[in-house]
Design goal:
- The complex is a heterodimer of chains A (171) and B (451).
- Chain A is built from three helices and six strands, in the order H-H-E-E-H-E-E-E-E.
- Chain A is of the alpha+beta class and 171 residues long.
- Chain A has a six-stranded mixed β-sheet with strand order 2-1-6-5-4-3.
- In chain A, a hairpin with a 2-residue loop joins strand 5 and strand 6.
- The two termini of chain A are 26 Å apart.
- Chain B is built from 16 helices and 23 strands.
- In chain B, the strands form six sheets. Chain B has an eight-stranded antiparallel β-sheet with strand order 13-19-18-17-16-15-14-21, with helices on both faces.
- In chain B, helix 2 packs across helix 14.
- The chains are: A alpha+beta (171), B alpha+beta (451).
- Chains A and B meet through strand 2 and helix 3 of A and strand 7, strand 13, helix 8, helix 11 and helix 12 of B.
- The structure holds FE2/S2 (inorganic) cluster and fe (ii) ion (FE2).
- Fe (ii) ion binds next to loops of chain B.
Amino acid sequence: MASPVGLELFHQIEQFYFREARLFNEKRYREWLESMVDREVYYWLPIFEERYRADRKPPPEFPPAIYDDNYKDLEERIERFETNLIWMEDPPSRIRHLITNLEVYHAANADELETFSNFLVCRNRREHEQTLMIGGREDRLRRHPDGWRLLRRKINVPQRVIMDTNLYYFI
Amino acid sequence: MSIEVGKLLDHRNGIQKKRIFWDEELYRLEMERIFARSWLFLTHESEIPKPGDFFCTYMGEDAVIVTRTRSGEIRAYLNTCTHRGNQLCQAEAGNTRSFTCSYHGWSFDLEGKLAAVPLEADAYHNLLDKDRLGLPRVPKVESFGGFIFGCFDPDAPSLRDYLGEMAWYLETFTARAGVELLGPPLKSVLHCNWKVPTENFICDSYHVGWTHAAALKVMGGPLAAMSGNTQAPPGIGIQVSTRHGHGFGVIWEAASALHRQPDYEEFLRAKQPEVAALLGEMRGKLYRAHWDAGIFPNCSFLYGTNIWKMWHPRGPHECEVWSWTLVEKDMPADLKRKIQKEALRTFGTAGTFESDDGVNMHGCTYTNAGPHARRGEMVSVMGIDHDSTHPELPGFVNDANYSEIAMRGFYRFYAELAEARDWNEIIARTHTVARNGGNSNGAPQTATPRP
Ligand code: FES
Ligand SMILES: [Fe+2]
């Protein structure tokens, strides 16, 4: 296992995630992308299959994903928000991210870190629509002159059948 | 039957009562009359290629196991143990030699036979008649173009005849090299009646420019002008309604419109002459068109965007959507991968288009909680005076971009199926276009023989 980072760096990274959550909550997606995301980012939310433990069928050759995004893909999703033509967001919905269980480790590459964290996202819309999503993230961060940036994110959502009408929000 | 379905639906005037999206009693009738009589999509042969492969799905609200037996035959069983009725298979897919119940351990082989009973001598004195306790089989399971369908009604016509004229159209992409579905499917819950997304996919080109204004604008390219309905889509399209409630809408030359890279378009252009040589010029043209389509009752797809969907009903006010990617077998692996990415990016659970639809579908369902709203009516009159037939195309055709002809056809067949005594009564009927006359007798006359 890679070695955990010291207290000061841990604190920096924790602040990184709290800031990211705040930008998501305030829907400042463009700012998130431009100040916290590496150009080579891979943002991934794969799905899984409920199989028996002893099952021998090979995994799919083309595994489907809910997010399979590079920087440009993320940017186009953000542009979609910026059109102000998304009727479900008008009036706007409310969203809140809680980030917990943070672990930060040195990666083999000295300019990178590996982290694990859990999230709870609460979305509320119109009068009564509220959904909660709990899951985990496995990230790789890369050092930039102005701070750390997201290089890879794998999002683990434990729901096989997503209990929300869509997952069009960043985690 | 206490509900008179004919009073809820008037296809000649394009009217439906709003309560069709809400009523509990109607929903129960649908389970008995629509879902128990129709051919329902189960999975694709490419999902269960080997003996012992299985895939669990639903026919209406009945859980079923679809499996390939040792001899390679495809069968479907109710996913319920014949001992005390526990859910037999609890994985969604895989490969197995048998299905063993988690309650008392009864084990069924791929042929559905009860193969092993724990402590058979001690508990049953070896008197248990195992031959009578096999899994209940779905009586009809057939494939078309590799798409496996099942039907609970032994009197239903063959799958080929049920698809009828629609089969002629489906051959456009199934007949040349064959297709496969890339699974496992994405699955998510929608808070709406199952008919709302179904009627949307079968004909609703009208909502695209408005509901999906944001995604269209960001996408750029030939369809961007549709955003906010500032302009009708470039080129002209048609809307088609076929016998047995199937239908689709077409935008010519737009198959690859939602793909951001050119290689899919290049593939289509390269293969179009083969399709035309095999199936004629008209289907060659359809091969490069974009379709939004529905196979009655609850299977939908977008050809071109290449998403394949099932809307599984979960009570009158909820359904579950399952989404696969559709690709042609002889596409290079890299192209399949790109098509999957674009299909799920636009019409997956976080789809740039799909995410716009859910809230409208929720709204169309839940406003009917109020008894006054529920007593009201909805209209599907768009293009009703232009419904006609076409010299080269089977079914009823409305030669326009925007028309609700396929929605009218969907509800016409829905009412027929709900009210008919049995399939023989349905098969005996002839169909006319709502107002303009013209006949269509369904599949046998118009479907082209397989190459
Ligand atoms: S209920 Fe399945 S073995 Fe008893
Ligand atoms: Fe839509």
